[in-house]
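Re: duplicated header lines in exported structure tokens

Our pipeline writes sequence and tokens for each protein into one text file. With two proteins the header for the second block appears twice in some exports. Here is an export where it did not happen, for reference. First protein block:
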Amino acid sequence: MSALPDDLSRTRALFEHWRATRSGREKIPEELWQAVIALRDRYPASQLCRELHLSAGALRARLREAETQPAAATVTPEFVPLRLESLGLPSADRPAKSTEALIRLVWERADGTRLRLLLPVSLWARAESLCQAFLHS
């Protein structure tokens, strides 16, 4: 069995997390449906249903609905620079110890907004809270 492509794998992880944490028989949140709709041009509906454990009828209805809605203007998120010092992270003029391992993180929300970080392992706790704030904003 081959590994799933990154975008489908991330969406599957979002669905698994939602299913594990939902209470009762909640409907699938709109953000998750939007993530599925964003994949419609790259994967057949049968694969989306199989990998994301979706009802074929529900997926068809959502895809029809997405096709009939007027296309929203594509909005490119504005780049927002953050001062590393304000986050308690080392700046370029104060590099981490050269012997310390680095971690590269790329977080992506269902809406496509990404946060990329490259930082020393010792700062993981600070980065973790930043990433949580990013994912829940």
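Second protein block, exported in the same file:
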Amino acid sequence: MQKIRTVTMMLVLVVGISGCSDMSPTGKSTLVGGTGGAAVGAIGGAIGGNAALGTAIGAGVGVVGGFLYGKSKESQQNAYQQGYQAGQQSH
């Protein structure tokens, strides 16, 4: 049973990440954070005796963390682009 669960989690990870080609950077980081958080939460929950609860908590934390990370990187990129354009216009 444990082997089937592990294989299923790996397939979900691969399928989830392979669908990222048309997504924004924030969308990608949100998806990766949620998927990674769910995987880590499932492992921690299985050790603690409740894999479903661990998966839910891990996915929630991962989605929020991935979203915030993506927004931060997006903000940095926008600031860089604005500075670059301002520098180009001053020449």
